[in-house]
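Explain my protein.
***
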Amino acid sequence: MSENLLDLRKLKKYYPIKGGVFRSHVGDVRAVDDVDLKIHKGECLGLVGESGCGKTTLGKTILRLHNATSGRIYFKQTEDEVERIEGLLESESPADRKEASRLLKDVDLTAMNGADLRKQRGKIQIVFQDPSNSLNPRMLIKNIIAEPLLIQKLATAKEVDFRVDELLKTVGLSGNHMRRYPHEFSGGQRQRIAIARALATKPEFILMDEPTSALDVSVQAQILNLLKQLQKDFSLTYLFVTHHLLVVKYITDRIAVMYLGRIVEVAKTADLFAHSLHPYTKALLSAIPIPDPTTKTEKIILTGDVPNPSNPPAGCRFHPRCSYAKDICKQVEPQLMDAGEGHTVACHRWKEI
C-alpha cells in the first residue's frame, strides 16, 4: 500500500454571497465541496477539469493560501492514525471528540496556526501559472530565491549566494543570472526561476498550478522534463493542476477528475485513458485532438451549461448534461465507489455505460 503524504477528508471551501441593504449572507459559492482525496508520497497526481470547477481553489486550500470552510487535511500521517482520529470525531463521546481536536492540532493543516503553520510552510510550496505575475519585478533574482531561505532560517546572509547559485544551476540556469531582474528573462527562464524558489526550502510537496500553460509548446516540453527530473532527484510529490490532458498524460502517475467542486473519478493515468468510467471523463478525453486525418473518433458533445456553483443541482451534479442520467441520478448524489485496482468513480451507472 502506498504511503499517503496528504489525506483530504470532507474538505470544503465556500465563498459567501452577500446581498440586500445590510449585506447579509444570502448564499455560498461552493468552489470545493466535500472532497476526499489521497496524494501518495513520491507521486505526481494530476487534477483536471473544466475552467471554474475548483481545481486551483482546492490546491490553494491545501496550501492554506485559502482557509478551508470545513474538513481536514492530514499531512504525513499513516492510514491507521487518520482512521483512528476520524473514528474519534464520529464518536458520541465528548471526551473522544475532545481528544480528536487535540490530536488534529498537530497533524491537520486546517487546524494549524501561528508557529505550527509556519513550520510546515517550508514543506509545502507552489509554482504559479504565470511567472510574469508571480515574480516581483522590483527584486533581483538573488533576492527572490533567497527570501524563503531567510524567512525559514535555512541559510545565513553569508550562505545565501552559494545556495542561490546552487538552486539556479539545479534548474538549468547560471549563477551569473542572480543579479538580474525578472523582465530580463524569457517566459521559460522565469518559470525555471519560480521552480528554483519553490525548491529553496527543500519541500516535500509542490502544487504545480498550470505551470506550462503560459509557455510555448517547445518550452513546455523542456519544463515538463525538468519537473520529472527534479521529482526523481529530490523525491518530490506533485499535485499537477491543468486542463491540458496530453500534458497530464505525460507527467502524472494518477489523475483525479473534478467537476463543479467534487471529485468524480480517480485512477492511474494509463488506466484512465484506456478505461475511463465517468461520462464526464469520457467527454473530456474525446475532445483530445488526434494528429492523424485517417483516424476518426466520436466526439462526445455535452449539452447545456455548467451549473451555477452557488446552486448546484440535486443528485449527481453532472446529470443535467449527461445522456445516461436516470431518476436516481437526479435524486441521489453518488459517492466515490471502488471499481478495482485503485480506480474510483462517482457515478450510479458506471457499470452499464
